[in-house]
# Entry
Amino acid sequence: MPNPTAAMLVIGDEILSGRTRDANVAHLAAALNEKGIDLHEARIVRDAEDAIIAALDSLRTRYTHVFTSGGIGPTHDDVTADAVARAFGVPIEVRADARAILASYYAGTSRELNEARLRMARVPDGAVLIDNPVSGAPGFSMGNVHVMAGVPEIFQAMLEGLLARLIGGRRLIDHTVHVALPEGEVAERLRRLSERHPAVSIGSYPVGRGGVLGCTLVLRSQDPEHLAAARTDLGRVLEELRPPS
Amino acid sequence: MPNPTAAMLVIGDEILSGRTRDANVAHLAAALNEKGIDLHEARIVRDAEDAIIAALDSLRTRYTHVFTSGGIGPTHDDVTADAVARAFGVPIEVRADARAILASYYAGTSRELNEARLRMARVPDGAVLIDNPVSGAPGFSMGNVHVMAGVPEIFQAMLEGLLARLIGGRRLIDHTVHVALPEGEVAERLRRLSERHPAVSIGSYPVGRGGVLGCTLVLRSQDPEHLAAARTDLGRVLEELRPPS
# Structure
């Protein structure tokens, strides 16, 4: 059975303005890889309902899961929950279960559950809440769209709980080799190696200024035997390239 | 006149596998902001022609410019140039001008312009080359799609030359205020402030664990007078929130 597939949707003007550097794509990518869910693409859009809806419409029909980060706080620029409700064509209002979670969380603080914070209990009809062990306000899963916070610490905590209830697949296993030759010297042999091992994806990444110093080769496969065969073959190929001593 | 708009397309399995963290979106975002080109979205896709073409088809019709990074090296997993040619429906082959650039570059090194490296001279018909002062192999602009390398140092050098020949717009100016109150305490007033200043975008970003410690407010506008008015207004709002001493 093929692995489940996924896309990530990062919501936030602050990333597109260059003010903040996204950290959630890299974290999600590593976590999904562990879980055997294949991350096919990621998008970053502005805090604008129309942009979020267009991306959701495109992604949620194409992949098993869509993970979002950002835009679920108490301020006016947090529009993700409304956009998700509109994308699914369902109503959104303050929900009793989410409100109870917030009430209980703020009861343990010196802060009060005011009207602005109550916005964080607005959840589209039919969504399942995602636990937020860091700061109370829950995320939610609406169909195959999983809506989480943008603050990396909260995103990661929410994701951990969420992933525990999703079905995974076969983890990609990989093998990394550092080669002290520029890409251009190994490219032809790598191409042939790649053709001989269609079940193994072989990536080549230049290392050092302009790729002059060397390259990192990454072999990835779901099948340990195919990976082992490609590793042995690569070893032979690199041996051929070594100048005789 | 409204600013030109843009999207970024990052091409690379290594980002989606979590192996490498993208640095080019943040760099492009800051550079475009300086130039007065509005970055509306960014996408990260795999090293797969179909995925690249689907993203290009969607982005190049919607924005003034599309900037890509990654997938233009000499190895088999570098498929960006072919994907761009297919997206535009034009032939691609080794072009004399690109080949001459590579020949001249490699003549100054101990390396030779072999067949694999010649792949980097394959340019879609009708494209304009983008100079690569770091490692020779050029990028190219095909229509409104600007194809650059993924290695950050090379991406940045290519972008600098490219941006010099693009027409910019009005730079967004911004003003950042750190507030020692959690978002939930300022949210209602911020919403009203935002309604009073429609020409100013007001972003709020939690700071510290779970947003407990405070928040950063970012005011952005193309118009210095509108920004100044919103700043003054924000100052009053924050003054009201301060407890009497």
In short: The radius of gyration of chain B is 22 Å.
